[in-house]
Every structure is written in structure tokens, then in C-alpha cells.
Amino acid sequence: MDDVGTIGCNELHAASQRDGWTRCHFSQSVPRGGGIAFARCFACVLLGDDTGSSLPFLSEISIPTQGAGNKLMTPLGLQVCMGGDDDLHFGPAMVNKLLAVAVLGGIGFVVWRYLCPSCHPPKPPVLDADEWWGPDHLKATRDESIKPFKVVFKPDMIKDLKDRLSRARKWTPSLEGVAFEYGFNSKSLEKVLQYWKDSYQFEAREKYLNTYPQFTTFIQGLNIHFIRVKPDATQGVEEEEEGRRGLIGAVDKASLIKEAKVQKKQERLKRIRERERSGQIKNLHSERTASTRDWSSLLNNDFLKYMQQVVPLLLLHGWPGSVREFYELIPLLTKQRPGRNFVFEVVVPSLPGYGFSDAAVRPGLATPQIAVIMRNLMRRLGHKKFYVQGGDWGSVIVSNMATLFPEDILGHHTNMPFVQHKCTLLKTLIGSVFPSWVVEEKYAERMYPLSKFFSFLLEESGYLHLQATKPDTVGVALTDSPAGLAAYILEKFSTWTVFDYKHLPDGGLTKKFTLDQLLDNLMIYWSTSSITTAMRLYSEDFSIKKRALKLENIPSPVPTWVLQARYELAFQPAGLLKYKYPNLINVTILDEGGHFLAFEMPAVVADDVFNAVSAFKDWHKNKAKEGKTEL
Amino acid sequence: MAHKTLFYIVLCVGLFRTDAIFFSDLSFAEIIKIYAQYYNEATVSDAELSETRNIADVVQQNDNLYKNLTCLIENFLKRYVPSSMPTLAQNKWWGEGPPYVDTSIRPYEIRFNRQVIDELRARLAYRKNFTRNLEGSANTYGMNRNLLNQVLDYWLNRYDFETRERYLNRFPQYITNVQGLDIHYIHIVPPPGSKKVIPLLMIHGWPVTNREYYAVYDFLLEPKNTNFVFEIIAPSIPGYGYSQPTYKIGLAPYQVGIIFKNLMARLGHQKFYIHAGDVGLWVGSHMSTIYQEDVLGLHTTTPYSAMPQTFVKIALGALNPTSLVDSRYVNRLYPLTMTLINLIESSGFFHMHATRPDTLGVGLEDSPSGLAAWLLAIYIQAANPNALKRDDGNLLQAYNIDDILDVLTIYWDSHCITTSLRFYAEFTAVLQDPTNIKLELTPTQVPYGALKFRYEVLYQPDSLLKNKYPNLVHSTTLDFGGHFSSFEYPDVIANSIYQAVEKMQNFYRTKAG
């Protein structure tokens, strides 16, 4: 008997060769787990599983020797050794589990073979680009102007808010020893409300919220509010003009040069004609030289900006966030960086029904319809093609944009990828039996066991269930009570930042954010009374009408870059994401960070977005070389 | 909200179970170990194994596919039914500070705190302008703004707090301290006479207090052609109305059951009957499971069984609904998808109560309008879910608005909304306290009476109810009424209680004979 060492299994003690069999000894043994272990072993062998994570339950297995140091390769020769105390026991329990695997496999195969749409990817539906969400009587309005906007905290509103906060009753004490497990802790709530009432500087914060140029414009019946920041623009006046020209929106250098040439040529012809008329024309050659000089001067000034490439980027927030989530990120994206030949012009809209954007007056404004509105917004700003980034609902909307308008979206960056493609779900299920097939071992705990994930979801999704079914009911209390709104919204900034913060008496609220930051966001909801309309997005997006679009099953060809924070609500490895995003370029996996990533770690997000867009550009270049696109 | 219980159990327990068996990374032995912690059953016994082998015989006896499958699975599922009752502490201390004994019984009258009422009115008067409902959405996205404002205006201007206070004090009320908590209860002793006096414990639901059964008391007290009269004891659940809340984790329904048992003992009733509905059903059902000798009979609205075989039969019944349910009532349970969708549609509030009661409670404590919306939406839904499509929600037609506002005023005055919501969280804290599930899964021999109204979201035929209550002696299925029928049809409930108790007494006579 000579040991051949381990075969890569953690639990493996040793393997030895004897009688033409390789015999593997495992440290763990569970008598009744034999059936599934057998299946796992089988799978392990089939898959050439090196990690051995699927082999924890067998005490000893034997495989025919194929030479020294061989891997488990031949399923047919696999033999389960029985003996000693670790007898395999094929009781009904195990039969049941084996049966489960078989049934699962059978169903899986059928679904995979016949239902998986990868062979016939469905075409994206065409949505009405002018669907009207405002009141009917405004339908005649054709107002395409872009109006400057400023956040105003009216004195009345502040007084009313402070009145309501000071009228607060004595909150029901939290249960003994309970932090945030039953919801917002009452002691912690008192402190937050105290700060809001007495220490929050309404005027200073209002001024801060007006740091960036903001506008509203009327789209499909709704006034949409957005922040627009250009790299070198500190003033918010002439943007509109430039935006209309549609030059900044175009990132294509070649077409820019072409356009500039045409323009120059026309100007020169014009000048020549003028001079002809005035009899000044003498030397055509020298004129031509002058013109060339003009052109190069253009290159030096405006055009350099184009060379530098200002690329448009749409940033979308989610619930219970607002544009405020991006205030720390915006300057990092609009500042030029060494080693980058591009910089961003960012457009940060409030979603319809959120904060300063109007809400729909009739049912149906779900994420695909918001995607249409956002595209119309970008078009109005002169951006026919642009990059998108989103988190929470923002990520769903940008994903929908990439699905519905693959021609317009140059690249798709998301920090909350959650693919619900059929194949993804199926593979996730199968992965619960064979995790190593789906996810790297070190990230497996973010996905499996599924029961843990489901119970986590179940515990966290009460708000979602509520908002997806009866948003108006809970909305009354949250519209009427600032304390209620604070508890409802801020709870998410505790638990979703780090899951375990719910065990801290103060919810760890100020560990990653300042109270000012959190209350700014809250003020956007309170001052606009928009919590009900914001929550309705859940009802719309879970509606039968929206689900019938089945966008989750339509792959998007747009190059995609994914940023996954440690405490994002769901984790999916690249293998699962690719069903929806076949051109997935990269996945950045972080060991920290939570759901509100742009808010919490703006530097990390900014770096990642720069990396992503750089890669998107290369991807387009390569594509162009292949002659498949115009870029 | 018992039907939502079912839903939650399907999700929470069922999901965990099937998931644990089919999809988890646990070996079966590990799963068994986990269940052993739940059920004190360390291993699957040989007897159970042989039982499973007998399935072949069973299959031969029935050639009906449905029956075969049911038997097969039922046999298999029997292992999940705990064989022994857990030993439960009968005197756990829920009060603050060190335990003491105070058995005094103090008379109590409801006196709304004037300051609180003035403040309530001020808040109602200065309520915000609530968000417009979407065009044509009526009550389907939640509370309709116009309807809400209508009720709030009534509460502010026309609801007469003093008259209602007098109405609320119509019945003798007391407070006594049980296990550290002051329990508020109504105690109606019948005038002395020749008839036998039967003690009846009545347990209310959410969002109500012992105010729920005021009209039912009247009908129960009316003289009837029976040889018995009722002595009514109707406590409020701790944390509801004027019963003191606990600030300790774990006051689950069965713990409330223990408190109520002790309360009954203090009042001199070792054996008694129970009527219960909504969350009170959890208490009543668990009491009749724990104290099978002492509870003489259980009568409830929203009857349900959460036994594993019940779910399996419901699922299999989808193949041939009429094999399970009388054809008249088939549409109350099937198509199953519709039932499930309706459950999901209507159980958002349950999910929130069960997971984050304190967060939600803040807004409801601070805003009477918010509280009203939250409760009214439940009442609308409960009376008839189809009415959600109507702007008026059929609210004022189905209920006497004063009844509802009594409840709202009690909730506001006693500041109990958050503590009342926590009851759901304790009920569903199955991982922390498996006793809840264990009791759900233990059948009780106590004779049972079921009253099924038309618009209960949950309907189960008697054959399924027998999984949990083998001695089902009385069952009435009605073509009207909703979940809070104690407001809508108090006479029907009172009659049904009388009938059920008569049948239960016959049951005991037959048994003795």
C-alpha cells in the first residue's frame, strides 16, 4: 500500500493504491449520507472536481488506478467501499434524496433541452416611445425645453417637519436585548430624530444639494428632474446649447473629425463667397493655408475636448435612494484622470415618482417603461449613444435599457446584477447539489446553501412584498409621519450596508455614512412627499403586464461590466450572469461594501467605472476591426 | 389572519423543509439532526421504516391514483409529526423586574386619556395631503385616499369619544396579573338559574382587542333553548389594547395560551370551551393542543390545518379538485394558482409584521391616519377581497364604522400597535422557537367546531381539517361573511358556538356511554 497523496480534497486524508484501486480516505464520514455522497462523488468524478467540495460525506471510495497521481477520471470504475463503522446505508431517506437528485436532473434535462431559449433568443419587445404618463389634459403640451432647477426647502415645510418631529410620542421600547432584529431600534431612532430636529442644518444642506447644476424637462407627460455635470463645466448655463448640437454625445472620433471638416469647409466656402462678392479674393492658396490654420486652432481648443473624449454616462439610483447617492461619486467621474483619454459627462435623473421627478398618474410605469423615458431624456440632451450605470432599481432599469436599446447603450455597468434568466435559475438550483460547478469555492457561501439564502430573503423582503402589493396603504403613515419615514428608510441603510449591522444597537448607521448624508436622502423623500409614488414602482414591476414582457430571458449584446459588493443582497458568478449578458467583460468582486455602493464607496465605484468604460471602448474598437459595427 | 398563517408556513416551513431535503448541502443525517432538535426525535425508528415498507400493501388496496399518492406521502410525512408533547414551563415570567405573585382581581373601566384624544384630533386635523391614487386603481394599490379621508373626517368630527367610551364599558371588565403581565379581560357571569354554566374563553384577533366580540356577547347572553348558559371570559392578548405588553423575546401564541390557561385557573375554571378567530386561533389551537384534557372544545372561524399531509392533499387535489372538495366550494380552493396569487397579494402586511414589526410600528404609532389606513385596508380586504376594485371598498356597507373606530381609538389610546405587530414575529420565529411548529404539527383530540365564512381567503374541507382535529364535530360552511364576521354577523357566530358546544357535549356523552 503506497500513498499517492491527496487528490485535492480538503477532507481527504490520504489516498492509497492497492489491488489496482486507488483508495481515498476521508476525515469526515456520515453514515446516512451515503446516497447523496455517492451521487456527489459521481458528479465530482464527472466534472473532474479538484476542490473536492462535493465529496465531504464519504469515508472511503475507491477508483481503479490509472497511474501515479491520477485524478478521479473514470466514472465507470467508481466503486464505493463499505466497511467498518462507516457503512453506507441505503434507507428510504437516502432513496428519497437520490430520487430527488434524479428527478431534479430529469426535469433539468428536459428544461435545458427544450425550454432553454439560448437556441432561439427572443427578440426584445418594442415599447411605445411616447407613452403618456402625465394627466390627459397635458397631452397637447409639446414642451421640450430644459429648465434649470434648484432644490428648495421651504420654511413652511421645515416648520411643519419640526413640529411633527417634536410631537413624536414616546416610542414603544424595543424588546430586551434586541437591536435591529425586529426593526428599527427605538433608542437609536430617538437619537436620529433628535439630530434631524435640532442639528440638521436645513439651509446648509439645501445649499449642498444644489452643488451640481440641476434641470427638469418634460418627457411623456412627466417633468423629469436630473443633475447634469460636465467635466469642466462649473456653470450650468451653456450646456443646453452644446447638448442640442449633439456633438458631445458622439464619442466617435472619426465622425467628429468628419463633421468638423464639413463644417469648416462650409464656413470657408461661405467666406470665399463673401470675399468674391466684395472683390477681395486674390490668392486662393493663401486662403487655403489660413483655413488650415483655423482648423488646427479648432483642434487645439474645442476639439481637444473631443480628443479627450467626454463620454456621456447615465447614473440611475434605486429605492430607498435618490440622486443624493451619487453626490460623492459625481466629482470623481467628471475629473480627468492621468492615463485616461476620456472623462465623463454624467446625467443623474430622479426616477419618475422619486424626489423631484413627477409620478405617473396611471398604472403601468414599470422599469421597462422607465427605460424608455430615460432614453428619451438622453436623446433630448443630445446623447444618442451613451454608457449606463445603476444600482438597485437603477440596475434593473439600465439592464432593461441594454436589452431594449442595444444599439444605443455603449456599455452597461451595474453594481447589483441579478439575472433571472431561465437557465440561470436552473443552474442555480442544480448548483445547490453541485456548488463547485456553479461558483468558485471562496464565493460559494454567498449563494449556498439555498435554504440560508431563501430564509435571508424571506426575512429581508417584507418591505418588498408590501410595496409590491399595497404600497398606498403603508404610504399613508410614511407620508404623515417623518419618524415613520425615517425608520422605514434608514433601516435599509443599516441592514443592507452590512447584514450583521442589525445586531448593533445603533444599527451601525454612522459606520459608513454620516447622519447628514442619510438625512439628505430622507429630505428628498420628505420634502416632496414622494414615498408612496416611489414604492409603487414595486407594484408596477411585479405586475402581470410587466412580467409578460419576459425581459429577463432576453440576452443583451451590450458589453457589460459587473461590480459585486460583499453585502449585496444576491450574488451570482459570471457563469450565471452570462446567460443574460453574453458580452460580460469583467466581474469585479469586492470583499467589502454593501447595497448602496456608490454612496458608501464612491472611489471604488469611480475606479471601476473608469476601468469598465476603458474596456468597453477597447471592445468596440475590436468589434470595429472585425467590421461588425461602425465604431 | 389564519389563512395567511398557512401561506407563511408554506413559505417558511415548507420551503425550508423541501429545500432542506432536496436542495441543501446538508446530508440527510444532518437534516434529521436538525429536525431532532425540533422534534426531540433523534432518529427515524425501525417502526417507521417498516411503516414505509407497508406502503406497497396500501397501494394495492386503493386503485385510485389520488388516494394512493396521498397515502404514500402521508405515511412518509408522518415522521414529521412529533410524537410527544414538549414540556412547557407553566409560569414563565414576562413582566419587568424579579417575579412576584399578585393574584388580586381589579375592576377596570376604559377611560380614554383626554390629552391623548386631544392630541389625536390635532394630528388628524393637521394630517398631510396624501398621495393621489393612480387612475382607476380604487383600493387595489392599497388604501384609497378619498375613502380614507372620509373615515378620518368622521373620526375627527363625528365619532363621539364619550358615548363610545360608555358603550365600551357595557360589560364588566377586570385586570389581573398573570406571569408578570396585567391582563385586561371581560368577564360576564350569567344570572343564577337552573341551567348549567359553561365557561367560554373567547380569544380575539388582529387588528382588534376583546372589543371584537361585543355584539357576539349580546347574542350569547340571549336566552336559548339549551340546558346550559355561558360564562364569558374574553381577555385581550398581551400587547393588545389594555393588556400589558411584554418586553421580553418569545411571547409566542402558545405562551399566551399558557397565560390564558393560568387566567382561567385563577377564575376557578380548570376546564372550559374556547372560541377563537384570526391570531386568536393560534392561541386557541395551541391551547387545545397543549391542554387536551382541560380544553373541552374549540370553536373557530378561519379553520385550517397546517399538517404536512394537508398541504400534500391540497397539492394533489389540484389533479381532481372534486375528489377533495365538495363541488359547491371548489372555487374557494381551486385553481390553486389563483388561491396562491391571492394569498401573496393579500399577505404583504403579514410578511412585514413577521419580519420588521418595529420599523413599521413607528409610522403607525406616530400617525393616526397611517394607523387608520393600515387597519382599514385589512378590514376592507377581510370583508370581501373583490371590493378592493371599488372606490368605496364596501367598507361602510360591510361594517358599522363606529365599531372600526372603537378599535382604532383603543389602539391609539393604549399605544399598542407595535406590540400587537410583534405577535406575528414571535409566531413565525420558528428557528428560534420550534415549539410553535411542533404544536402546529401535533393533532389534538379536543372536539372541534369550524365556521367557514364565504370570503375567508383560506378554505379547507372538513377532511383536511381532520388532519389536525380528528374530532371535528361541527362544521358550517356559509355563503356570506368575511374574516371579521364578529362585526358583520355576530348572531351567526353566537348560534354556531351554541350548536358546536351542544354537539361537543353529545360527543362526551357518547364517549362516556
Automatic annotation (TrEMBL), chain A:
Belongs to the peptidase S33 family. Residues 312-600 form the AB hydrolase-1 domain. It comes from the Eukaryota. The gene is JHEH. PANTHER family: EPOXIDE HYDROLASE, EPOXIDE HYDROLASE 1-RELATED. This is Juvenile hormone epoxide hydrolase. The lineage of its organism: Eukaryota, Metazoa, Ecdysozoa, Arthropoda, Hexapoda. GO terms for biological process: epoxide metabolic process. Residues 146-232 form the Epoxide hydrolase N-terminal domain. One of its GO terms (molecular function) is epoxide hydrolase activity. It holds the Pfam family Abhydrolase_1. InterPro entries: AB_hydrolase_1, AB_hydrolase_fold, Epox_hydrolase-like, Epoxide_hydro_N. It comes from Eumeta variegata. Keywords: Aromatic hydrocarbons catabolism, Hydrolase.
TrEMBL record, chain B:
Keywords: Aromatic hydrocarbons catabolism, Hydrolase, Signal. It is a single-pass membrane protein. It holds the Pfam family EHN. One of its GO terms (biological process) is epoxide metabolic process. Its EC number is 3.3.2.9. It catalyses: 1-(4-methoxyphenyl)-N-methyl-N-[(3-methyloxetan-3-yl)methyl]methanamine + H2O = 2-{[(4-methoxybenzyl)(methyl)amino]methyl}-2-methylpropane-1,3-diol. Residues 1-20 form the signal peptide. InterPro entries: AB_hydrolase_fold, Epox_hydrolase-like, Epoxide_hydro_N, Epoxide_hydrolase. It is found in: Microsome membrane. Residues 105-212 form the Epoxide hydrolase N-terminal domain. GO terms for molecular function: cis-stilbene-oxide hydrolase activity. The active site is at 278 (nucleophile), 424 (proton donor), 483 (proton acceptor). Gene3D superfamilies: alpha/beta hydrolase. It comes from the Eukaryota. Belongs to the peptidase S33 family. This is microsomal epoxide hydrolase. It comes from Eumeta variegata.
